[in-house]
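B., you asked whether I could sanity-check this one before it goes into the benchmark set. Here's the sequence:
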Amino acid sequence: MNGATMNGDAAHTLGTAWASAKVNLYLHVGPPGAGGLHPVDSLVVFADWRAADRITARRFPQVALRLEGTQAKALRREPNNLSVAAASTLREACGLHGLGAELTLYKELPVAAGIGGGSADAAATMHVLNSLWSINFGEAALENIARQLGADVPACVRSRPVVMRGAGELLEDAVCPSLEAVLVNPGVKLETRRVFERFDKLGGRQPFAETSPPASTDAGEFVASLARDYRNDLQPAAISLCSEIEKVLEALRGQKGCLMARMSGSGPTCFGIFESAEAADAAASAIAARKRKYWVKATTFRGAGPGVV
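And here's what the prediction gave me:
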C-alpha cells in the first residue's frame, strides 16, 4: 500500500496508493468476551495490484470523494465511506483542520466480501494524505489512528503479512512465502455481523488458543501445513447463510494445480492457492468463463522474509 512517488511540484499536489485485498489464510475465532467481541487468531496477507482498489488525492479546499471503477456503484448509496472517515480522522489527529483533498477511489474490490476492501481503502487514504499534507506520521502513529476506524484498518496500514490477535487490533509481523492465488467472489454481499451471529448460534466451536503460523518458508510445505493444521472457523456459518460459497470452493478445488481452497474472513470471497502463476492464471480464466457473475482475479499474495520490520 505504498504511494507512488511524484517528481517536482507534483509531489505536493497529487498522490496515489494501492489498497490491496486483505486475505485471512486462516482465522481461528473464540467465544465472545464481556464486551461481546470475539478473540481472533489469524494470519493475514495482501494481494498484489491485480486485486486492489486505488486511491488518488489532490489538494482541494475541503475533503471530497469521487467514485469510479467496476464496483463503484455498490458504494454510491453508502452514507459513511471509510475513505472520507480516514481523511477526517487523520486531519483531526494532526490538528490542522483546514486541510482538504479531492479523493478519487477506483473501486475494483467487491463490497462486504471478507477481503477488507473498505479497510484497505481507509489505510491507503491515510498513506496518501500523510504525504500529500506533509504530516509525515510514522507507521506506528498511523496504526494508532487507524484503530479508530475499525479492527482491520491497522493491518491494512502495514499491508504485509501479519498475525492479528485480540479483536484484531494486536499485530505481529509474520514470515510468509509469496503465494500464487486466485480470488473468487460469487457476487453476493455477506455482512460480518450476521456471520458472527450465526457462528455463535451454531456452537460446537473448536477450542480456541493462539498459535504460530506455519514455520516453513518453502511455499509447498507452507501450504501443506496451512491446509492440514489451520482453518477458518467462520466458514461453516457463512456457508449456512450463503450456499454459493461451497460452489465457489468446489470450483477452485476442481482446477488443475490447486493446492488448497478456503474462505477468507467472514466471506463470501474464497481463495485458492496454486502451484504456479501459470496454473493460477489458467484457473481464473476457466472459472470466469463458466461463471460470468463471479468476480475472479488471479493474483500473488505478497510474502515477507525473516527480519521483516
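One thing to flag: The first strand starts at residue 14 and ends at 20. Otherwise nothing jumped out at me.
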